[in-house]
Amino acid sequence: MENAAINAQAGWFQATARQRIAGLLDSNSFTEFMGPSERVQSPHLHLFDLPSAFDDGVVIGRGKLDGRDVLIAAQEGQFMGGTFAEVSGAKIVGLMRAARDHKELPQTVLLLLDSGGVRLQEANAGELVVAELMRAIVEARSAGVAVIALVGGKAGAFGGAGLTAATCSRIVVSEQGRIGVSGPEVIETNKGVEEFDAANKALVWSVDGGKNRRLIGGADAFAQDSIEGFRAATTALLAKVPAFDLKTMHAEQARLASRQEKFGACDDAISMWRKLDIKDPEAIRDMAGKDFATLANTIKEANHDAR
Amino acid sequence: MLILKLRHAAKRRLSGKQDTAIIGVVASGNLEVLLERVLPGADCEIEIATPVTGYDETWKAVIDEFVERFSPGGLRISINDGGARPDTVFLRLMQGCALMEKV
User: What backbone torsions phi and psi does residue A110 show, to the nearest 5 degrees?
Assistant: First the structure.
């Protein structure tokens, strides 16, 4: 399945799911499963008089990353916010279970998350599929599969996508990538503007954005916002995937407990960065990507063996 | 949802080796176009699904012009529309043909 040619320098943030896959993987190595010609579409959207997508907003398949065989799933953040629904979710769950059960398949899964969470028009199916996916990821990891989340799209990774990211072996994020469970508007609506001012973009991006996630250990690699940047960061990370065993689980538990203790009283990102002994935390926001990536690699909390 | 099915006899078969191509995304002001080389001779079928009603004549005019200028014979073209403007529709159809014409 061909798509528009895309320059490797092109931004990840703006690219479509198909453009990301085409540029991330070795050229012409991608084979799609259940492609758009099969028209595996949402059975629900037409009831709401909403247009369907031929792939329901998820592209799955296999290919090569720097010569290494991988399975890949990409959410199309521009279609219905990249949401988890009956079909879009089942495609990712099916891919993950296939990796779990079939050793002859590639034992690395790249998950290109770009999603606001569950598709409200298919909410029950969407909630179920998020639960199924988290279970499938944990089972696949137990069976030795490496699951890498890549986050840098317009929709970020919120709701079920944020939960899904937290179950992965490793997470790659760009500055534009946001990871969270409750989105800023949800927090403000439920807890008030004093808790989180969703209109304050600088606050939102500093808390949910990729730089903070990387610094406090919520992501394991920082990618430049280009397809080439994600390719480089993901390739480098493949060598650093921890075994999914009791030792890693204990380390993860200890990491999260110490994070809670360290940052629990902080009320913004800069105060967290100060606790990390970063000399000039105010400068992080405007720091160039390459300099930031180098700095993040020196922070103890950001470079752990857990997850 | 409005479903428009249009049939044309193009002047010739579209050249190129690709059997299928997809371009665009179903998003506000955008559309996805799926092209499949499955029809005999210079036949061309176009099926449009759009939530926006009342623009049948505009769709027909855009498709007429596209078929006249690009002669997409042999193609079944399926469109999921997100409320795209006619110029965006024409652009995606052109991009789709360019993908199909690759050897």
Answer: -100, 125
